[in-house]
Amino acid sequence: MAKDIETTAEQGGGEFSAKDYHDPPPAPLIDFDELTKWSFYRACIAEFIATLLFLYVTVLTVIGHKVQTDPAKNTVDPDCGSVGILGIAWAFGGMIFILVYCTAGISGGHINPAVTFGLFVGRKVSLIRAIMYMVAQCLGAICGCGLVKAFQKTYYNNYGGGANELQPGFNKGTGLGAEIIGTFVLVYTVFAATDPKRNARDSHVPVLAPLPIGFAVFMVHLATIPITGTGINPARSFGAAVIYNKEKAWDDQWMFWVGPFIGAAVAAFYHQYILRAAAIKALGSFRSNN
């Protein structure tokens, strides 16, 4: 097991004390014992409900924006009559901040298959947990969009259903690149904000972790809404496509899975194996034990 030694100055003097830190062991690839624990199913339920609430609020915000900027509906000032892109970005980022804060202690607050995949690549969760989380997240997204359509069916069908689509004027390579980089920013922030080494050193970090994660979602939406409508969350894109069920949403669906998964994998590799040098530490530990 890798070990870091941090030296901290004691208050009121020049003496120093060493604070030992041990990296937590990687999660097992397959852990069937999880299937026998109520805490595992409770975490899956938390992911389902959190993703449902996330899609319900954010898709309503997107549709409300389109309704308010429709000249046929708003004849006074359609350009200034809605929350705009800034408001949509705040809705997505704000909901992630709220829901991560609420569910972090139960499921880890993933609410996104790309985040779950990145944490799996970084050996933070097992394969079984990763798969079950993704299923729960996708089902929650479908139900969240279904609630929006049930309450506002006409607006939902007439104003795009909140579905992610490549916007006119951009090619698929640009859209894919936007999804890769946007998801990299998000997942890199997740790893940095939840780094156990930082948690051991700074007691305030676990409490503040949802804030940078939500703010990362906010910033990425500002940059990529004009390109793809901003996916960076395969469950968000999949749930909206299932309920909206139009050809364009399905034609671009691959982009909102491939891009986020590539971005998440690169972010996990960068943080774990370059910044934290996990491979080098493991090799050094192996040599020292022999």
TrEMBL record:
It is found in: Membrane. Residues 1-20 are annotated as: Disordered. Its main location: membrane. It is a multi-pass membrane protein. GO terms for cellular component: membrane. Gene3D superfamilies: Glycerol uptake facilitator protein. It comes from the Eukaryota. The chain crosses the membrane at residues 40-63, 83-106, 127-151, 175-193, 205-227, 254-275. InterPro entries: Aquaporin-like, Aquaporin_transptr, MIP, MIP_CS. CDD domains: MIP. One of its GO terms (molecular function) is channel activity. The keyword Nucleotide-binding does not apply. Belongs to the MIP/aquaporin (TC 1.A.8) family. PIP (TC 1.A.8.11) subfamily. PANTHER family: AQUAPORIN OR AQUAGLYCEROPORIN RELATED. This is Aquaporin PIP2-3. It comes from Hibiscus syriacus (Rose of Sharon). The lineage of its organism: Eukaryota, Viridiplantae, Streptophyta, Embryophyta, Tracheophyta.
